[in-house]
């Protein structure tokens, strides 16, 4: 079990102490978490640290084109600033105030909170839009929360975002790809629309870089009326103070197994600490499922330690209804344990949470443009993330955060800030978005942090081979425009378009839905044999994609039964999410004129459609390899079929994978066997005939 410094001894630190900063105690803050009346909400609003800065914020927004607001987590930036702006008239005359978030869940949660504070219904004066879900009313919505990705999509219809008077880019320090693209484009828009105001909310460390970025706007020639325009240099405002104290506990020695350590810590808290819910940060669906199972079994086998625990997973692959469970009030006498990925890291207030357990890891993308390989890797988080995680406790009362790493590690080894996603990702989706917005000179685009030219060139090559870009690097018609319109990775979009021509769109839409979530299998420790046996019941010789079709069919035939999923080691929540996404994809397909048609299980057609999208991920088994080693066709990288694939140990000669994960080796996840001649058919330029021919034969 992880050993923590005991509370009350000298060791635990208050959050601010980490930096040697000032301690802020807001003990007057009401700690009641339910039954808010309107008046009490108003009082709560006024007690938030940001309230003291209301006038300054409004003054700066009035007088500067860009205002950067720096503030501790919980100071009230997200929920309050849009309301201040509305109250000051920025939404008058039909104008709209936008507030972007990197994550969907945060968009929904913050919109409901702000609507509650304003005493209105979500979807009316306060609305939100996330991919596939628009809960806003063009005539009534004055404050709109949306993901930064959705705002980018809105630019396709309205390049200058004319309906917005102020755009607040929240959590800009997270540096998601979409945030970086958005910042670059907003800077451009400001030159054309000097009346547009930007509010960038950012952690301290990034504020200077943000300011430099917006500062470097080229000065316009002063013309008549110029003095009426806002000042171009950005203003920086620092909001001092936070909500409640969060006591930080570190482990004394590094933990060997963070899932096991997280489970032990939850039981320790439950045993020794007063009432209050627990939020645990792990990395992904796989380790969350394992932790949920361990805790559930503990609850079954040994009532003493774990009676009264309500254990809930939280990750993006869950259906909406399951995600909503984490927001429901905890029944009296019970303790909720939410086990989450980093989707709960920013902007969320889960009312009952008093304790946070932080594994110190998250799943992150890393792309190597030389090998053209993108991996999803479990990697250490940054100090900025650790603070955000700790900040989820102490939002409505004092809290505690248990870090499953040592203080020495936190202070000396943890990086201050993560690497911007744009510098560690494959840029195919990013390039197509910019192209769709008419940005032709992608290499010359004004980025807050430049991606490597190699990554750009790789992305351009792939898009060209997908038939999305023409010789002039412009979107092709209709394929390029259609691919850009589908809000999915371009390779999946291309696969869907190809399925229309091949007559297998029903099957491919199912496959696309399954590929958009992490896994539909139940992951658990100690159940590998049963899981393998269950897989055999559905396994298709052609590979995982066709296996998904068997599972989907079985699920429908069972009447979408949770018991059926349980018996077959399939994650019921994930299957419900697949159904949701599939419905959304069907609507998009119909809009694009794709005829929904089944090929009646002609798996060759299905595999050809997959090849049309994913040809760049083709690999060949090494002729003399008995260890199942493959080499990627592009880049000659060594890769292996992941043990979770139905093709593990089957090792067909030619395969295509959907994604790679890196542990001790590079593993291909979701693999399908192909005929190599389909590669040259699908992408003659990519696999120049003469280069591939000797390999094929
Ligand atoms: N759904 C909610 N229920 C109750 N209180 C809430 C809710 N949402 C926000 N609050 C209160 O408002 C405070 C400020 O939240 P807000 O999201 O505006 O802060 P923030 O400065 O943007 O922090 P972060 O960067 O962590 O998002 C919370 O600490 C909490 O006290």
Automatic annotation (TrEMBL):
Residues 58-223 form the Helicase ATP-binding domain. It holds the Pfam family OB_NTP_bind. GO terms for cellular component: catalytic step 2 spliceosome. Keywords: ATP-binding, Helicase, Hydrolase, Nucleotide-binding. Its EC number is 3.6.4.13. Gene3D superfamilies: 1.20.120.1080, P-loop containing nucleotide triphosphate hydrolases (3.40.50.300). SUPFAM superfamilies: P-loop containing nucleoside triphosphate hydrolases (SSF52540). The keyword Membrane does not apply. It catalyses: ATP + H2O = ADP + phosphate + H(+). Residues 262-438 form the Helicase C-terminal domain. GO terms for molecular function: ATP binding; helicase activity; hydrolase activity; RNA binding; RNA helicase activity. It comes from the Eukaryota. PANTHER family: ATP-DEPENDENT RNA HELICASE (PTHR18934), ATP-DEPENDENT RNA HELICASE DHX35-RELATED (PTHR18934:SF136). This is RNA helicase.
């Amino acid at each position: 079990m992880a050993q923590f410094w005991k509370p009350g001894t000298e060791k635990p630190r208050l959050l601010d102490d980490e930096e040697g900063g000032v301690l802020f105690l807001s003990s007057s803050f009401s700690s009641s978490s339910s039954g808010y009346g309107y008046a009490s909400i108003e009082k709560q609003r006024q007690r938030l640290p940001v309230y003291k800065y209301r006038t300054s914020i409004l003054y700066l927004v009035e007088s500067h084109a860009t205002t950067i607001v720096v503030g501790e987590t919980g100071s009230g930036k997200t929920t309050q600033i849009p309301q201040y702006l509305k109250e000051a008239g920025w939404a008058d005359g039909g104008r709209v105030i936008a507030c972007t978030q990197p994550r969907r869940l945060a968009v929904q949660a913050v919109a409901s909170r702000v609507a509650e504070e304003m005493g209105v219904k979500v979807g009316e004066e306060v609305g939100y839009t996330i991919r596939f879900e628009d809960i806003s009313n063009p005539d009534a919505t004055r404050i709109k929360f949306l993901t930064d990705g959705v705002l980018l999509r809105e630019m396709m219809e309205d390049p200058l975002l004319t309906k917005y008077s102020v755009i607040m880019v929240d959590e800009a320090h997270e540096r998601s790809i979409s945030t970086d693209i958005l910042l670059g484009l907003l800077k451009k828009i400001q030159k054309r629309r000097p009346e547009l105001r930007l509010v960038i909310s950012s952690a301290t460390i990034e504020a200077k870089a943000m300011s430099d970025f917006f500062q470097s706007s080229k000065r316009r020639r002063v013309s008549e009326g110029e003095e009426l325009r806002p000042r171009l240099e950005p203003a920086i405002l620092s909001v001092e103070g936070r909500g409640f104290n969060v006591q930080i506990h570190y482990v004394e020695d590094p933990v060997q197994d963070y899932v096991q350590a997280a489970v032990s810590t939850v039981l320790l808290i439950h045993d020794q600490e007063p009432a209050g819910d627990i939020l645990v940060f792990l990395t992904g669906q796989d380790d969350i499922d394992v932790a949920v199972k361990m805790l559930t079994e503990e609850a079954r086998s040994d009532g003493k330690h774990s009676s009264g625990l309500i254990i809930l997973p939280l990750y993006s692959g869950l259906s909406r209804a399951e995600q909503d469970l984490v927001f429901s009030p905890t029944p009296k006498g019970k303790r909720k344990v939410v086990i989450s990925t980093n989707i709960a890291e920013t902007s969320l207030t889960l009312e009952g949470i008093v304790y946070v357990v932080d594994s110190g890891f998250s799943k992150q993308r890393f792309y190597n443009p030389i090998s053209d390989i993108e991996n999803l890797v479990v990697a250490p988080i940054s100090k900025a993330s650790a603070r955000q995680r700790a900040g989820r406790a102490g939002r409505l009362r004092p809290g505690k955060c248990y870090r499953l790493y040592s203080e020495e590690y936190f202070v000396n080894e943890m990086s201050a800030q993560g690497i911007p996603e744009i510098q560690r990702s494959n840029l195919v989706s990013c390039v197509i978005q910019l192209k769709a917005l008419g940005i032709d000179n992608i290499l010359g685009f004004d980025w807050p942090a430049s991606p490597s030219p190699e990554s750009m060139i790789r992305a351009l090559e792939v898009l060209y081979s997908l038939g999305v870009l023409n010789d002039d690097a412009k979107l092709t018609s209709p394929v390029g425009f259609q691919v850009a319109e589908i809000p999915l990775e371009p390779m999946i979009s291309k696969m869907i378009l190809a399925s229309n021509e091949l007559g297998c769109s029903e099957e491919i839409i199912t496959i696309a839905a399954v590929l958009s979530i992490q896994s539909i299998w139940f992951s658990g420790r100690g159940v590998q044999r049963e899981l393998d046996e269950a897989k055999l019941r559905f396994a298709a010789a052609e590979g995982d994609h066709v296996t998904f079709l068997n599972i989907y069919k079985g699920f429908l035939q069972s009447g979408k039964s949770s018991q059926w999923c349980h018996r077959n080691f399939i994650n019921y929540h994930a299957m419900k999410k697949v159904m949701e996404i599939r419905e959304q994809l069907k609507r998009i397909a119909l809009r694009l004129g794709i005829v929904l048609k089944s090929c009646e299980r002609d798996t060759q057609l299905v595999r050809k459609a997959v090849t049309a999208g994913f040809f760049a991920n083709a690999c060949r088994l090494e002729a003399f390899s008995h260890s199942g080693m493959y080499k990627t066709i592009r880049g000659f990288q060594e890769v292996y079929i992941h043990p979770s694939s139905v093709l593990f140990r089957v090792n067909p000669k030619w395969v295509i994978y959907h994604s790679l994960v890196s542990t001790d080796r590079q593993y291909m996840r979701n693999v399908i066997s192909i005929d190599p001649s389909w590669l040259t058919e699908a992408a003659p330029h990519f696999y120049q005939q003469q280069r591939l021919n000797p390999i094929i034969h």
